UniProtKB/TrEMBL annotation:
Organism: Arcobacter cryaerophilus gv. pseudocryaerophilus
Keyword Transcription regulation: yes
Coiled coil region boundaries: none
An MF annotation (GO) of this entry: transcription cis-regulatory region binding
Record has Nucleus as a keyword: no
Pfam families: HTH_1, LysR_substrate
Keyword list, A-Z: DNA-binding, Transcription, Transcription regulation
Protein family membership: Belongs to the LysR transcriptional regulatory family.
Residues covered by the HTH lysR-type domain: 1-58
SUPFAM superfamilies (alphabetical): Periplasmic binding protein-like II, Winged helix' DNA-binding domain
Protein name per the record: LysR family transcriptional regulator
Length: 275
């Protein structure tokens, strides 16, 4: 059964008029009449009664009508989906707290502007938990600290970070390492740096946000290792002693990743985004 014939049939039934249906469909009236006759011939039934003011459905036509409406709607929906196959309706973004603190707001603003009909959802956590979320299909894309090692992931974008040793500006820092909570990449790299390169025994304190860490370093409680971008964003650069750490020693870029088998439809857009 030709779906195009069904579409014409539904329109004629809705309008109760061949001439009105022809006008709505953009066809000649004779074309519509011909298509109705073609459908009637293929089914070997009469679909319409001709009356002075137009047409009305026969009993057989009424039975076909409900099926035809459903078929036409499904075909129209399928056509719409195929034409908009590259349109991302919903995007769940996972991110580290460090990335959320620095560059995520401009990213979200641009994303919302470029895709006004796309719903956005943000989940922030440590790199460890964010990796779990993307691997378990709980987020579509994820910003993580450090190169992903899991073969199930692919990199969509990369953002270089300048890592610095953060100390009080006007007083010696005690051997206390201040870091974000367990699971943060800077936590692990920082502890290894203190042990391997500074040969220090230290006390370790964990916090739930970066502003508290920087405030405590400023107050003389200890030292930390963080991306320069966080310190600049939170306006602590002038208040602290900052020592840049060579990328040969610590290199922790931020990566935007997704699963190989769950690639977002806006992949090309994300790969070319300028952070």
């Amino acid at each position: 059964m030709d779906s195009n014939l069904l579409k014409v049939f539904v329109e004629v039934a809705n309008q109760k008029s061949i001439s009105k249906a022809a006008l709505n469909l953009g066809f000649a009236q004779s074309n519509v009449t011909s298509r109705i006759q073609q459908l009637e011939k293929s089914l070997d039934i009469c679909l319409f009664h001709r009356v002075p003011k137009g047409v009305i459905l026969t009993t057989e036509g009424e039975k076909l009508y409900s099926y035809a409406v459903e078929i036409v709607k499904k075909i129209e929906l399928a056509n719409y989906e195929m034409k908009n196959i590259n349109y991302q309706k919903h995007l769940i973004i996972g991110s580290t707290e460090s990335n959320a603190s620095t560059r995520l707001i401009p990213f979200l603003l641009k994303l919302n502007k470029d895709f006004p009909n796309m719903n956005l959802e943000l989940i922030t956590n440590t790199t460890k938990e964010t990796l779990k979320n993307v691997l378990n299909y709980k987020v579509d894309i994820a910003f993580i600290s450090g190169e992903p090692q899991n073969e199930e992931l692919i990199v969509l974008n990369k953002i270089d970070e300048n890592i610095v040793l953060v100390e009080p500006k006007n007083q010696p820092a005690p051997n206390t390492f201040l870091s974000f909570k367990n699971g943060c990449a800077y936590n692990e790299y920082g502890q290894n740096y203190l042990k391997s390169f500074l040969s220090e025994d230290y006390k370790h304190l964990e916090f739930g946000n970066y502003e508290t860490i920087l405030g405590c370093v400023k107050a003389g409680m200890g030292k930390s290792i963080l991306p320069l971008s966080i310190i600049e964003k939170l306006n602590y650069k002038k208040d602290l002693k900052l020592t840049k750490i060579s990328k040969k020693i610590i290199n922790i870029p931020t990566y935007l990743v997704c699963r190989k088998d769950y690639i977002p439809r806006i992949k090309d857009y994300l790969e070319n985004f300028k952070f």
